[in-house]
Amino acid sequence: MKNKKVLIVDDNALNRKVFENVIGHNYFFESAGDGLEAIALLKENEYDIVLMDIQMPKLDGISCLKIIKEEEITDIPVIAISAYSNQGDREYFLSTGFDDFIAKPVKPKDLLETIHFHLNHQKNRVIISEKDKDIDVDINESVIQQLLKYHSLENIKSVYKDFLEEAENLTEEIKLLADFNKFEEIGEKLHILKGNSGTLGINMMYKVTTLFENKIKNSSKVALTDDIDQLETSLSKFKTLVENDKIFIKYE
């Protein structure tokens, strides 16, 4: 299957790196940071499938797909990836022309199975919506175990350390934005943290960022101090686990 090539389209660098690490063992890949870059790559190169984020600057995923189809750039499968997750959202994305839909946070197993399904032209696939059984633990180690099937422990460590660095930077930005009541921008930063922590199974941060983002969305724009304190506490706890190798030592 290594002869197949995937185009990853996502504006968030850490998302791209996580996807690259998940699929890199099985497939060749290239990445684009937005829809315009994706169109340019599709015109210049041959790919077998596209993983398309929906919310992107410059050109969003739906608009990008529309151009691909109108200009007949390619007829390969294009998979929508988005934080939208209910059945109605899935049907909407399929109605706009996407071949399939993967909800964020993306589970490595779901990503690989979806790619395999479309590259092998299978006719039937059961869509199973399951609640994360490990949501009450700080780290969902099943994510690490899935990644270990395809990558070295050192590669996986680097992904979690990259997330830690990004999370620290985003948390500092959120604190500054809170001083100026920049609620929309805070929501954007939280959305990145929520998606990446969910994908990597960092539940301690996923739960905090989910609640914080919902508060911003619901216009509860007062007393953010407690939310920021909880975010910093969860980040500090995760940092201790990563820097002391506590979440990896059992796999060495």
Describe what you observe in this structure:
This protein is of the alpha/beta class. The chain folds into 2 domains: 5-130, Rossmann fold, CATH 3.40.50; 153-251, Four Helix Bundle (Hemerythrin (Met), subunit A). It is built from 10 helices and 5 strands. It has helices at 13-23, 35-44, 61-70, 87-95, 108-119, 141-148, 153-179, 183-199, 203-217, 225-243; strands at residues 5-9, 28-32, 49-53, 78-82, 100-103. It has a 5-stranded parallel sheet with strand order 2-1-3-4-5, with helices on both faces. Strand 1 (5-9), helix 1 (13-23) and strand 2 (28-32) form a beta-alpha-beta unit. Helix 7 (153-179) packs antiparallel against helix 8 (183-199) and helix 8 packs antiparallel against helix 9. The modification 4-aspartylphosphate is found at residue 53. It comes from Cyclobacterium marinum (strain ATCC 25205 / DSM 745 / LMG 13164 / NCIMB 1802) (Flectobacillus marinus).
Number of strands: 5
Tell me which oligomeric state these chains represent: single chain
- Pattern of helices and strands: EHEHEHEHEHHHHHH
Measured by DSSP, the beta-strand proportion falls in 5-15%
Give the C-alpha Rg. Answer: 18 Å
The backbone outline, from C-alpha atoms, is: globular
Determine the N-to-C terminus distance. 29 Å
Corresponding CATH architecture of the largest domain: 3-Layer(aba) Sandwich
What's the total helix number?
10
- Reported by name, the CATH topology of the largest domain is Rossmann fold
The biggest beta sheet reads:
5 strands, parallel
